[in-house]
Amino acid sequence: MGLFCCGKDTTALATTTTTTTSNKLRVFRHEELETATAGFSPSTLLGRGSHGSVFLASLDGGRLLAAVKVPSDDDYSTFDTEITLLSSLPRSPLLVNLLGATPAGGPTPRIAVVDLMPLGSLHDLLHHPLRPRPPWPRRLRLALHAAASLAALHALQPPVAHRDVKPSNLLLDANGRARLADFSLAVRLPPPQALPPAGTIGYIDPSYLRPTDLSTATDVYSFGVVLLEILTGRRAIDVEYSPPSLEDWAAPLVGAGRFPELWDPRGRPAEGREEEAARDVAVLATRCLAPVAEERPSMAEVAELLREAEWRVRSPPPPAWRRLARWVVGRARNGKVSDVAAT
Predict the structure, then answer these.
(1) Which are the catalytic amino acids?
(2) Which residues are documented as binding site for ATP?
(3) Where are the beta strands (DSSP E) in the chain?
(4) What pLDDT, in 10s, does the model give residues 303-327?
């Protein structure tokens, strides 16, 4: 669990833009956050992970609900590095933003305050046994949100590599839109020092073996696994299946054109435009998983292709007369003039 395990969005997210605003961070007093979380009471605990614990905070007389994270005892340096990186990023409706933190160099470990994401994560949405599975159009839109978030990071100067893209780090705001979270492994490119490869098994790029292998394409690979997870409803690694690796199971099916075997039966695309879009997304996922990093698409291209697929799914079907005209034109172009005339 990184900084952004929870957060709340009050800003509308336009998936066709990456508009950002300056990041004016607030300095919080430790006593202020202790009061806002009822003394870091278990009743306000939102989650606990390897990097620390996250609590619900009611600030400014209840006008601001946020999430605060207290780092684990052995994670102070990583935590400070994450806060430093986040404080350099502009606020964006595509990310779970840092709102502020307690001062550095104080008598107590720093505490970060971030947006509150009240609807959990994409991982919860896909895998929690008590949550209804989202239909395919909803899955496609969430994939677009996630792609836009990564594309925005990669478009920064210098670009930022997230290094831990996975469904549990894509959190859902109050409007149900996915935002990128947890920057505990993120770095600007090129990194100032050689960093050992890092990530999560099942999502980490297998070609990322040395510090010099790191690039934005590393995130593209991880996002390809996320796309397969959205399509299939299977976890990246699941020992109940053979092979347990989602990529090893799904990629051959895509290559053989056996798309119906991929679909999550709890969120199967409908016949027609939805299934056509799903096939395109499956092919796009395998492009993201290309063994050679240079052969993968950029996240800007991925976002654009997902935007086109999502638009096709949302657009109303053409009227009957237009479909007939397209059929007639198609027959004529194929040399079936006599058939057209007879029709």
Answers:
(1) 164
(2) 69
(3) 26-27, 45-49, 52-59, 64-71, 98-101, 112-114, 160-161, 170-172, 178-180, 187-188
(4) 999 999 999 998 876 666 666 666 6
